[in-house]
Amino acid sequence: MALNHGSDNKRAVQAKFDAQKIAFGPIMFQAALALRNLGILQLVKDAENGITMEEISRKLELPLYGVKVLLEAGLSLEVVWVENSRFRLTKTGWFILCDELTRVNMDFTNDVNYLGMFSLTESIRSGKPTGLKVFGDWPTVYEGLSQLPAKAQKSWFGFDHFYSDYAFPEVLPVVFRNSPKHILDVGGNTGKFAIQCAAYNREARITILDLPGQLAKAAQNITAAGVEDRIDLYPINLLDHTHPFPKNPDIIWMSQFLDCFSQEDISGLLKRSADAMHDNSALYILETYWDQQKYEASTYSLHATSLYFTNIANGCSQMYHSDDMRKLIEKSGLVLAEEIRNVGVSHTLFICRKKK
Ligand SMILES: C[S@@+](CC[C@H](N)C(=O)[O-])C[C@H]1O[C@@H](n2cnc3c(N)ncnc32)[C@H](O)[C@@H]1O
């Protein structure tokens, strides 16, 4: 069920509690992370009859004081519960510990966003990704991606790939239903989709358009997969709207890509797509729209992810509402011919054709 964002019928006592969750959010986030990373949640999970804080302190060789304050925070976080001084894991605690989606999101929050977010207000005022300076002096995160500190890079790719990995196998039969011979993978990153296409269909040629740093990594992956004869690399700064796309592809593929750009730049990218397409080409846009989520948890995550774009990625893009994209498609000489919802974890596939 989607959250009802058009009403406010919470009781005051609940509203005040929710306000405190926000007030102490960053502290409590770090507590949950420490409970996970120090192995405390794992011990609690493994203990069939619960476990005391003294036992945890002894087993993990951690000061009792530290274990005590973390477990007490864990009670308020509802990741553990306690009976007769023995702690047990709650369902929320299980998700923090064992659910891959939650792990990927927490690592992304901590390793990519946490320090930079201190300057979010500045990013809102300036339209610049002011948090990115924590890692280096690049205009956007994409120029810096291949040079990010190892932990930040691992969590960035972990976050990006988690969502697309679920979606790609589901969309391949749709992409190949009309036997395309040439696919442009715009923003193809490390080549994951292109390599899967090459394995799925032995006839197709794929051209990946991306920044040189990402293509260097893609080249290694493509060679390792042994498909370099069918995947070409096309280094390009896609923000240069005077630079046309290669002509006449059967399919232009954009996955988790247009959310990296402002609405103005999306218009430019869509127009260049339309210019490159022949009459029967299709543009496939795979995105996560915040209004099209089945679960509140997904909408919440997407609203938070938008602020990563504001503060770290580029200062000007976001996880869009599907109507934002529909308007941009309409303005760009394209029509939305088909819409497939509930792909992967939270994606929608838009299939666009040239306006006749
Ligand atoms: C979020 S990733 C998506 C990767 C992949 N398509 C997927 O679904 O997992 C966005 C990609 O767009 C590329 N990109 C962003 N800005 C770019 C630019 N100005 N020029 C070329 N590529 C760019 C990034 O390098 C990155 O590989």
Task: Write the SSE topology.
Elements: H1 12-23, H2 25-37, H3 40-46, H4 53-60, H5 64-77, E1 80-83, E2 86-89, H6 91-98, H7 100-113, H8 120-126, H9 141-144, H10 150-175, E3 182-186, H11 192-200, E4 205-210, H12 212-225, E5 231-235, E6 251-255, H13 263-276, E7 282-287, H14 296-313, H15 322-331, E8 334-343, E9 347-354
Parallel strand pairs: 3-4, 3-6, 4-5, 6-7
Antiparallel strand pairs: 1-2, 7-9, 8-9
Helix pairs in contact: 2-5, 4-5, 7-10, 10-11, 13-15
This protein binds S-adenosylmethionine.
Order of helices and strands: HHHHHEEHHHHHEHEHEEHEHHEE
CATH class division of the largest domain:
Alpha Beta
- Going by CATH, what is the homologous superfamily of the largest domain? Vaccinia Virus protein VP39
Shape assignment = elongated
Q: How many domains make up the coordinates?
A: 2
Q: What structural category arises from helix and sheet content?
A: alpha/beta
Low-confidence stretches: none
Helix run count: 15
What gap, in angstroms, lies between the N and C termini?
Answer: 38 Å
Strand order of the largest sheet: 5-4-3-6-7-9-8
The fraction of residues in strands falls at 5-15%
Mean pLDDT reading: 96
The major sheet is characterized as: 7 strands, mixed
The helix content, as a percent range, equals 40-55%
Overview of this structure, please?
There is one protein chain. This protein has 356 residues and is α/β, with parallel strands linked by helices. The chain folds into two domains: 12-98, Winged helix-like DNA-binding domain superfamily/Winged helix DNA-binding domain (Arc Repressor Mutant, subunit A), CATH 1.10.10; 163-354, Vaccinia Virus protein VP39 (Rossmann fold). It contains 15 helices and nine strands. It has helices spanning 12-23, 25-37, 40-46, 53-60, 64-77, 91-98, 100-113, 120-126, 141-144, 150-175, 192-200, 212-225, 263-276, 296-313, 322-331; strands spanning 80-83, 86-89, 182-186, 205-210, 231-235, 251-255, 282-287, 334-343, 347-354. The strands form two sheets. Strands 5-4-3-6-7-9-8 form a seven-stranded mixed beta sheet, with helices on both faces. A two-stranded antiparallel ribbon has the order 1-2. The protein is elongated and about 70 Å long. The mean pLDDT is 96. S-adenosylmethionine (SAM) binds at residues 142, 145, 160, 164, 187-189, 210-211, 214, 236-239, 255-257, 260.
